[in-house]
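Posted in: Structural Biology > Protein-Ligand Complexes

Title: Requesting predicted complex, uridine-5'-diphosphate-xylopyranose in pocket

I'd be grateful if someone could produce the 3D structure tokens for the following input. Sequence and ligand are given below.
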Amino acid sequence: KHTIKTITCIGAGYVGGPTMAVIAQKCPEIKVNVVDINPQRIAEWNDTDLDKLPIYEPGLKEVVKEARGRNLFFSTEVEACIREAEMIFISVNTPTKTYGVGKGMAADLKYVELSARQIARIAPEGKIVVEKSTLPVRTAQSIKTILEAEGNGNKFQVLSNPEFLAEGTAITDLHNPDRILIGGDQDEDGLAAIQALVDIYAHWVPREQIITTRLWSSELSKLTANAFLAQRISSINAISALCERTGADVDEIAHAIGADTRIGPKFLRSSVGFGGSCFQKDILNLVYLCRHFNLPEVADYWEGVVKMNDYQKHRFAKQIIDSLFNTVSGKKIAFLGWAFKKDTNDTRESAAIYVAKELLDDLAEIHIYDPKVKKEQIFRDLEYVYSQDPTQSFDPSVLQSLITIHEEPYQALENAHAIAILTEWDEFKTYDWQKIHTRMLKPAFVFDGRNILDASEMKKTGFEYRGIGKG
Ligand code: NAD
Ligand code: UDX
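-- Reply #1 --
Done. Output follows.
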């Protein structure tokens, strides 16, 4: 039986930070270290001004305030914290590979591998290593091989404990998870390691909601969950295109089909396309695995979810250009929202980035307002998307001249030809749309990529209003 007195988590990101803060909050007798190689990130986690935490999540400040300095510590002392802990979580990033074998599809496991090597070198006496990062099925085998080879042949226990939190609701998701999933070896040592992790979550999660499985099932459940969730969005978005051609209303359809208990009402909101660091990356990873295991039909099936999402983002941008008389060159287009969803400052894979790129290709002048995203982040996102387009040589000065970032919404909207809503921030619904209408050029177009405004009200106000899937 293991007694866990200290936990160390490698990676102080969107997952490592909030999950460890909640574990520390709920298990005051366990010391929790969160370590990262990025000193700026750690400094922000340690900032006495809780508004400067590196990520924005409702409720996070309060949890950090309660536990930080008591039994929650953020540090760059990776080696010392690994040595100290009985249980080590790996929560580093696993982005899509941008080079070499599997480029654009496979998960890049270099940070995970580095973490495993570091653990084995520093603490070769055999610890419990927990995969918190989302990983391809059978990665635990590679981690074990590395640990045992670098760790003088000592036996390590590797568990899979994927994280299901969604950004924007991370703290409530962590406090009240639908389930916790823990996979491990089914022999005596494996079961003891599983039990040690169960005991931690059992501080606040009812035992019947903690599911334990074999390693491979746990790893593959995470990719499968994200594929199913994203598939629902692509399915409703596919129907939204048909609605626009036929006069049906996609929100009415979502309501009607969601009332079927077998389908259920959640995750059927048609949109400009899903974003976020997980869905696309994890589905591409699943597709890559299927091809690797020579299952091309299965690979094609899931790849369709990503293709439909690309189509949806493209369709939205194209509708803006088409409606504005086939060109947006020199026209002011105002973007409300840049984050990939509301209540987060995260912009990874946000639909806004791809829509902006298509409009910039047509030489639009884009004015952006987002309540939480920083200016530098928006420029980094755009530079990145240009760097990924081999057909274009990138000139940063063009970007500087075509993009304006606003700290305040009304200036962003003034004299605009069109407004595009890219994120469903609640505050957008509270704006004085009458006042906005009088200050815009006419016809005043609003492209609501999130269907958050009332179509008939907007039309009454005088807008040329276009929702998603509103025929
Ligand atoms: P992130 O980029 O926000 O954080 C990862 C952190 O790991 C970074 O701060 C990085 O500096 C650090 N890091 C990388 N290598 C390191 C090393 N060798 N030593 C110490 N620190 C190191 O990523 P994230 O969003 O927290 O995602 C982490 C993992 O969790 C990914 O596998 C992701 O797929 C998965 N996940 C993410 C979410 C989400 O909503 N973001 C949800 C569920 C699962
Ligand atoms: C997702 C999974 O939900 C979570 O379980 C996993 O751990 C990480 O990936 P996240 O990406 O943070 O979480 O947010 P999520 O709420 O799933 O939204 C993802 C994207 O889908 C967002 O761009 C969101 O706007 C979009 N979305 C979501 C829709 O377009 N329609 C919906 O009905 C739901």
